[in-house]
Specification:
The protein has a domain of about 45 residues. The C terminus is likely disordered. It has a four-stranded antiparallel beta sheet, with no helix packed on it. It is built from one helix and four strands.
């Protein structure tokens, strides 16, 4: 199918969040519904490791305000909002 002649357009709303973690994580690491999509490196004086997480927005996600962690990823309990 030629995408230039397609008549319907579907859009996807994404939510992003920047996190400061105590330990580095790998690209693709997951925290609940959130997935790390950008690795920024260390902040000043190497106190925090900067990453960006993304998730697909939905009505259920909009009602859920807290950032939940899943699994036992190092530094996940140190996530700051």
């Amino acid at each position: 199918m030629n995408v230039l002649t397609r008549k319907t357009v579907s859009t996807m709303r994404l939510e992003t969040k920047y996190l400061r973690l105590r330990t580095p994580v790998s690209l693709g690491s997951r925290f609940g519904d959130w997935e790390v999509c950008w690795l920024g490196g260390w902040s000043l004086h190497r106190l925090h490791y900067l990453v960006m997480a993304v998730r697909v927005a939905s009505d259920e996600n909009d009602r859920q305000k807290s950032f939940t962690t899943a699994g036992s990823v190092a530094g996940a309990s140190d996530v700051q909002k």
